[in-house]
Write a structure and sequence with these properties.
homodimer, 349 residues, alpha/beta, 434 Repressor (Amino-terminal Domain), Rossmann fold, elongated, DNA-binding
DNA sequence: CAACCACGAAAAATCGATTTACTCCTATTG
DNA sequence: CAATAGGAGTAAATCGATTTTTCGTGGTTG
């Protein structure tokens, strides 16, 4: 029945042991790099490993160890550049430390988020990097707390009393956007976003508002916030413009909002920056090749991922310091979608 | 020393067993839904499970079983919408069957690809969904073959003699693009792509060329193919235009190529579709909100993922039929970036 | 020269399940 | 009524490692 020679069972530690004429324990020690093994025996083990092509089964290995070398990552989605890069980075950092990353998408659902977390808990992962759908106060974080899981919260979070958090410095970046827009003489600005991401969204909004008001007390800042759904935001934005409102600039607090704003502009036949200016939080590759190129806040994905993993591994190693909240500085790329309203005639609605 | 109650060990099957007053074997049977258990005992087990919050440890469970319920997925990158959606879909299908998906990015490197594969082999995954960096003839597929791994190849593949393959029907989609462009009176078309993805790229190119020639024998089709690197392609494209070539339309065989084409257009101050038309293989969300909206070939991600998983699980279940090569039909979305050359004056270079 | 120590290696326990093999019992059948 | 079949359950083996315990051998010391 054995028609394929490759189909045979992989060698186990015992196969190596018997081939090298030692016990399995000795093989284990050699593999772990323990020194108390006679050089001659170590060599025989190494030869046997080489000969048989032996590799440790991480599953069996992890079962016995105290801490399993698996890290879980939960992102709201994989489809955007931001989270795509994030997963890539996290995986790469995990790999560097000999951990396996298991990534899952909560698909913007808090219910799924908790389910996935439960499944990761079943795997007894050493730690979790959670980018919550909503914010740090959701059921997922509560679940982690209740079950004594170790983890780090990223992206749509500000700070937490149980977990380290790492996110972009939304407030500072937004303040810089405000400075740019005010500097270009915008005095009527619309901010669009989602109110669900409570803390982060508010930080972006308030950071923007405070900076703008400080520079130009007469500035008018309108706000269109949808609860959670992008399509609702689209409808609200449509209503807003339909009322005849004509801000000279729009600041979107998140990527999808930028897309929605752009598509509304095109519905109305407005062009950036002549008819209206646009800046969005979150950069994407395409934004620099379109015409006009879209101004955006670039989040430091690498730093966020790096510091998140750093914090996580510190906790896994047993760190007991009070949790810290990290804010990573963003870069604001002012591109062609932003101009000065004074230089162009506002088109009638 | 026990300062946190949540920190305690999770209940094992033995804890449940002793609480229910039965043996571990009985608990295992109840969990597996085996019928040969006295209803009364089954109930006691269920109660104990409920009370202790017991959940099976998939690691321990998999160690004992013949087939481990882990699926590996290897993608060239996570940053693009296509692969992001792909991973999301694959994860969701895996989850439906009670499998855990471990995804890794080869970061467009064949060396990494094989490394990752080796690591997945260490985990003794039940199967692998591999989207190879190059094509089906790379070292990764060879590794899988040599080690008797079961797997499915997707995306940058056409067919293989050892593995099932699933990919977009590049040739038909390209033919449709050709029909559209020829129909709009384009007679000088540039195709840009990467030659590394041999088979797929050639299918797209030949599908396009054949259909175009059939409809308009006088059509001139230029081709700019870079070996593997996007920046090289950019340079070659720049050279091409610098020579004074003025095709009326560009067909990009892959997403990054579309980005490169767009950015070269903007360097030269050309606008779509007045100065030049553009169609790209691979759609993205932003393409419908920019001005102009970019025409694109939409790949059926859901179908590809679904059929890949179907094929994979059939193999895992022991299917021994000869491998089949599936081609999923694409949709071509003609958007504003495509126009008729006759309607506009070509701008001098 | 007996007692003790250190070293290296093997034996055995362990991790948390699943599966096999075996033991009771009860019910059916010839 | 003895024999057999089947149901329900348990003890033990197993998966493939790691870790703890035990053991034997030499060398040192009092």
């Amino acid at each position: 029945m054995a028609h394929r020679q490759a189909q045979q069972r992989r060698p186990s530690i015992h196969d190596v042991a018997s081939r090298a004429g030692v016990s399995a324990a000795t093989v284990s020690k050699v593999m772990a790099g323990v020194t108390t093994v006679k050089p001659e025996n170590a060599q025989r083990v190494i030869d046997a490993v080489e000969l048989l092509g032996y590799r440790i089964d991480p599953l069996a290995s992890d079962l016995r160890r105290a801490k399993r070398r698996i890290i879980g990552a939960i992102m709201p989605e994989f489809e955007s550049e931001f989270f795509g890069q994030m997963v890539t980075q996290l995986e790469s950092f995990a790999e560097q430390r000999g951990y396996t990353l298991v990534a899952a998408s909560s698909r913007e659902s808090e219910a799924r988020e908790t389910e996935i977390l439960a499944r990761m808990h079943d795997w007894r992962v050493a730690g979790v990097v959670l980018a919550p759908v909503r914010n740090e106060h959701g059921p997922a974080a509560a679940f982690m707390k209740a079950n004594g899981m170790t983890g780090v919260l990223i992206d749509r979070v500000l700070s937490d009393d149980a977990f380290d958090t790492v996110s972009a410095d939304s407030a500072s970046a937004s303040a810089e956007v405000a400075r740019e827009l005010i500097g270009k003489d915008h005095r009527h600005i619309l901010v669009v976003g989602l109110s669900e991401q409570a803390a982060t969204g508010r930080a972006r909004l308030e950071g923007f508002r405070a900076a703008a008001r400080a520079l130009a007390p007469d500035v008018r800042i309108d706000v269109v916030l949808a609860e959670a759904d992008v399509e609702t935001l689209r409808a609200q934005l449509r209503d807003y413009f339909a009322k005849g409102e004509r801000p000279t600039a729009v600041y979107s607090l998140f990527l999808k909002g930028t897309l929605v704003a752009l598509s509304e502009f095109r519905r109305r036949g407005w062009h950036c920056p002549d008819d209206i200016s646009l800046v969005g939080f979150d950069d994407a590759e395409w934004m620099q090749v379109t015409w006009p190129a879209i101004a955006a806040v670039v989040q430091p994905v690498r730093q966020i991922a790096g510091h998140a993993m750093e914090a996580l591994f510190a906790r896994i190693a047993g760190g007991e310091e009070p949790p810290i909240a990290r804010l990573e500085p963003c870069k604001v790329l002012m591109r062609e979608s932003v101009g000065s309203p004074s230089l162009s005639q506002p088109k009638p609605t």
